[in-house]
Amino acid sequence: MMRRLSPRISLLAGAAMLAAPLSLASAQRGTPPARPAAAPDTLKALPIDGIAAVVGDQVVLVSEVMAQVNQARAGGAKVESAKDLARLEKEVLEQLVDVELLVQKAKIEKVEVNDVDIQNTVDDTEKRIRSQFKSESEFRTALKEAGMGSLEEWRKLQAEQVRRGKLQQGIMQKLQRDGKVTSVNVTEAEITEAFNTYKERLPRKEARVGMRQVVLATKPSEEAKKRARAKIDSLHAELEKHPEDFENVAKRESMDPGSKELGGDLGWNRRGRMVPEFDRMMFALNPGVLSPVVETTFGFHIIRVDRVQPAEVKARHILIRPAVDSADERRTRAVADSVAAAWRRGGSFDSLSVKFHDEAGGEDKTIPEYPRSELPEAYRNALEGATLNQILDPFPIPDPGSGVNKFVVAQVTFLDEAGEYTLAEYRDKIREQLSEERKMRRLIDTLKKQTYVSVRYNPDQMVVTPQ
């Protein structure tokens, strides 16, 4: 009997699988089983580098077929008999022929693939796989057990497979743009049949929630604003005397952590990127001119434009934020309570959000649907036990800019518990997948008529000797 591969070795082998044409089964089954089913070993009397097929002016070697078969088995392909193994070899050989047809067509159509994108993909894959191992030596051992002589060999194989996969995607996209691939209709009966066939392989549905919210920022007192204004006025007076010191003053005094160490540099910005008051002033200034003090929801700013080009400017700023404290936080919590009460009495969400929502904070007013597990902890805790359409009690979230909390008043607009997908939930995805698969199949069949293809390896005719 063949020794079973460990889950992590299966991961290494599976990661190197050739990117074959889309199929509903492979696209929807999700993560393969951690341990493939045990299968009897078979030893076939075949040449190591015999020709399995000829496609145009390229050959597919039997050794390539065997390598992909082994990787498929390591990734969880079910092989329990010699008949199963022969079936798998046929499927792999067909896929290799199909891929070669698409790759050759991509070259004819001059489809290009970015080498940087390929290397980034390989790097990301390697990083993900390495994270499964406790040590470098364990990782290297698993590489050898997966049939890879070295990490460099694995990376080279992975890069080639990523390249071929991107060529397949690229040629389909180009032919669709050129109108050379027509749409394919899919019936409801076919969708239902596909769902029933593959529903056990679909990933489980995770719990999701939707909401709309009013986020209230903790605002400073009038006294704190006066002190901040006095500070920015003194800096403005200093810069009027020594405008060349702008960068040094920004490094010394600015309270914007994103630009402070850069001397206030904000880089190039187009209209609409900043809050309105800041945006209007930035685009009104001539290069090198000091702005008057500008007040925004962030605090008080001094702006200087360094360079201008069509539709964008390069600017610097100095920010002074009014101080906020626990008393300001308590006052904001009281306002949040009043917003929640008004909303529960039938108040308009639109009106309340216009008046109270912190536009500068970046939080969306409406979140149609979002995985519960990916929500910040404060949201997860507040939503515990919540019901549809419920308006939650205000809850705090941190505001890194001010060092105190903001407060969220939210209404639950969507709830979906974890579980199995229904046909209704997956109908559109199945329709799209079947349509894409059939378009791909139609293209491949056309290419087979236009290209010399000779399949020379038949697994059913090979001698099988039990090990």
The biggest sheet amounts to: 4 strands, antiparallel
Q: How many discrete structural domains?
A: 3
Helix content: 40-55%
CATH class of the largest domain: Mainly Alpha
In the CATH hierarchy, the third-tier topology of the largest domain is known as Triger factor/SurA peptide-binding fold
What is the mean predicted local confidence, pLDDT? 84
Tertiary shape? elongated
Helix and strand content put the structural class at: alpha+beta
- Rg of Cα set: 31 Å
- The end-to-end distance, rounded to whole angstroms, is 8 Å
Q: Write down the secondary-structure element order.
A: HHEEEHHHHHHEHHEHEEEHHEHEEHEE
Give me the CATH superfamily of the largest domain. Porin chaperone SurA, peptide-binding domain
| Number of helical regions | 15
Say how many strands there are. Answer: 13
Poorly predicted parts: 1-47, 463-467
CATH architecture of the largest domain: Orthogonal Bundle
Beta-strand residue percentage: 15-25%
Strand order of the largest sheet: 9-4-11-10
